């Protein structure tokens, strides 16, 4: 089935307010993984232009930080309204540009709306604290100030939601935002930028020019942002390779980085698990978004007493799942992003076979011709956690291993370089609590009776070890977008020094 995706894409972009002139004549060819066809040729930002855009953002910050935080919240409320109105079109565009099934494309936009709502409330709660002073007639307080322009580098697989997790918080915190989207997904970024422009127009003059800027391109453009000392905070989402480079560069100039990198997430299926629920959760966690989520379930550790009951059912679900064009309603698994992703999947499966793994599925399926890459998700039975299992392969591969004690399962789970998400399926409260304790899961996210993916925006999102240690979205993640200031205020007439030090002159 081949439809003219380019025409549909252009109509969606026009309705979202993108200038058609931005879609032709550039060197960056944007292709849809659905058919492999080229949708547009977008112009990349030159390094001189990136420098100017960062300058504009720095100028905008100086004005924006003076706008009262609840007014900044009003701006984010208007942005949320634009996103609500645009949900159908933007969700479809996400689906076309990165190949997600439509409900996941729409879900991604809903996540943007949710974080805007969260940030509106937050704009009245950026509270500091008052601490007891050891000195008479002194007050000791702590307050939070806007940090400066925030650079956001995003990955292809959540082309718009990741920007919003950062930007909605940054805006209410008083920061301007410079966005470097994935070079694989510049169209959705152009669309979001057009919606931000509408929100700015509705908000009026208080929204400075340069509050939200967009720089398009590959690694070199990202590096220009990362190296620029005018940008005190860099939030980077992508591979661990990218994060290692970005983290080092930002640290060298004493900037702050929020790193959201690769995951290698595991679920443990215990003897007391509800197996029907487990089966559904595992299917979504491992095969949803064609295995291209940072939180995708990649390793399933199954207790030896339930292994033989679970595996045949899981194999049947894998064999029967509908892989197809994500525009079709009943499709659950869409395409891989590109040929490189397919090659990486093939290499990982070959390595698993060599290491003695039994591979079920994983074959390429011809859905929309040679330029698109659809695969049947792979289930791989392994006898031990070899090197290929320890790596994140960004494709639908689920490695399954047996275990006999919970201590052993936790040790296997934690014995990987990454530390993003994890979960346990159990109804035994002792096993659940052991898993959630300090000696249990070492991940930033540890769930019970659900999969590893599909986080809500209300919690802090991120992970440990090679996942980078950053936190975004809910809870007190906003603090990363502000600078902390401690204030000691003497309202007396004497000058007592702390720690009883004497210095009389
Ligand atoms: P990627 O690392 O190839 O690219 C991510 C972004 O970084 C792109 O915008 C890219 O242009 C930019 N970039 C790459 N090298 C750079 C450098 N040296 N300096 C500055 N910018 C640079 O990742 P991808 O293939 O787009 O996405 C998949 C990866 O992202 C997976 O590893 C996945 O787990 C991870 N991811 C993590 C999270 C999370 O929250 N932890 C969320 C989504 C994706």
Plain-language structure description:
By secondary structure, the chain is of the alpha/beta class. It is 39% helix and 19% strand. It is built from 14 helices and 23 strands. The strands form seven sheets. It has a seven-stranded mixed beta sheet, sandwiched between helices. It has a five-stranded parallel beta sheet with strand order 7-6-5-8-9, sandwiched between helices. Strand 15 (378-381), helix 12 and strand 16 (397-403) form a beta-alpha-beta unit. The radius of gyration is 24 Å and the shape is globular. The mean pLDDT is 97. Nicotinamide-adenine-dinucleotide binds at residues 153-158, 180, 182-183, 218-219, 222-223, 226, 237-239, 242, 245-246, 260-263, 294, 392, 394, 420, 467.
Features:
alpha/beta; seven-stranded mixed sheet; five-stranded parallel sheet; binds nicotinamide-adenine-dinucleotide
């Amino acid at each position: 089935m081949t439809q003219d995706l380019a025409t549909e894409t252009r109509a969606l972009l026009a309705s979202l307010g993108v200038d058609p002139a931005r879609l032709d004549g550039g060197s960056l060819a944007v292709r849809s993984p659905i058919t492999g066809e080229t949708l547009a040729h977008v112009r990349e930002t030159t390094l001189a232009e990136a420098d100017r855009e960062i300058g504009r953002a720095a100028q905008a910050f100086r004005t924006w930080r003076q706008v009262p935080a609840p007014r900044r919240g009003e701006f984010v409320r208007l942005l949320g309204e634009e996103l609500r109105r645009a949900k159908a079109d933007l969700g479809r565009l996400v689906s076309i540009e990165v190949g997600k099934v439509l409900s996941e494309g729409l879900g991604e936009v809903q996540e943007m709306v949710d974080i805007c709502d969260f940030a509106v409330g937050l704009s009245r709660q950026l509270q500091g604290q008052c601490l007891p002073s050891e000195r008479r007639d002194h007050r000791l307080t702590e307050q939070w100030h806007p940090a400066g322009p925030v650079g956001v580098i995003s990955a292809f697989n959540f082309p718009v939601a990741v920007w919003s997790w950062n930007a909605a918080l940054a805006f209410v915190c008083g920061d301007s935002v410079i966005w470097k989207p994935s070079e694989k997904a510049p169209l959705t970024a152009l669309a979001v930028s057009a919606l931000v422009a509408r929100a700015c127009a509705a908000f009026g003059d208080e929204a400075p020019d340069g509050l939200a800027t967009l720089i398009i391109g590959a690694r070199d453009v990202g590096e220009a942002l990362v190296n620029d000392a005018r940008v005190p905070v860099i939030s980077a989402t992508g591979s661990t390779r990218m994060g290692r480079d970005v983290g080092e560069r930002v640290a060298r100039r004493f900037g702050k980085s929020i790193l959201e990198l690769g995951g290698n997430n595991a679920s443990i299926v215990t003897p007391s698990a509800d197996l029907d629920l487990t089966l559904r959760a595992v299917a979504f966690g491992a095969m949803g978004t064609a295995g291209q989520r940072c939180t995708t379930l990649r390793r399933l550790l199954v207790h030896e007493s339930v292994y033989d009951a679970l595996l045949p059912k899981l194999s049947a679900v894998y064999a029967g799942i509908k892989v197809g064009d994500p525009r079709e309603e009943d499709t659950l698994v869409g395409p891989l992003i590109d040929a490189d992703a397919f090659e990486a999947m093939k290499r990982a499966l070959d390595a698993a076979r060599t290491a003695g793994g039994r591979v079920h599925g994983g074959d390429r399926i011809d859905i929309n011709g040679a330029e698109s890459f659809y695969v049947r998700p792979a289930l791989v039975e392994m006898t031990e956690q070899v090197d290929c299992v320890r790596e994140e392969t960004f494709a639908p591969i689920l490695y399954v291993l047996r275990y006999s004690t919970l201590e052993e399962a936790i040790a296997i789970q934690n014995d990987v370089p990454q530390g993003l998400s994890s979960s346990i399926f159990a109804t035994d409260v002792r096993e659940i609590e052991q898993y959630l304790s300090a000696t249990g899961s070492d991940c930033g996210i540890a769930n019970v009776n659900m999969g590893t993916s599909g986080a809500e925006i209300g919690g802090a999102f991120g992970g440990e070890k090679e996942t980078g240690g950053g936190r975004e979205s809910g809870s007190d993640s906003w603090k990363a977008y502000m600078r902390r200031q401690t204030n000691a205020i003497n309202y007396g007439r004497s000058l007592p020094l702390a720690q009883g030090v004497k210095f009389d002159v």
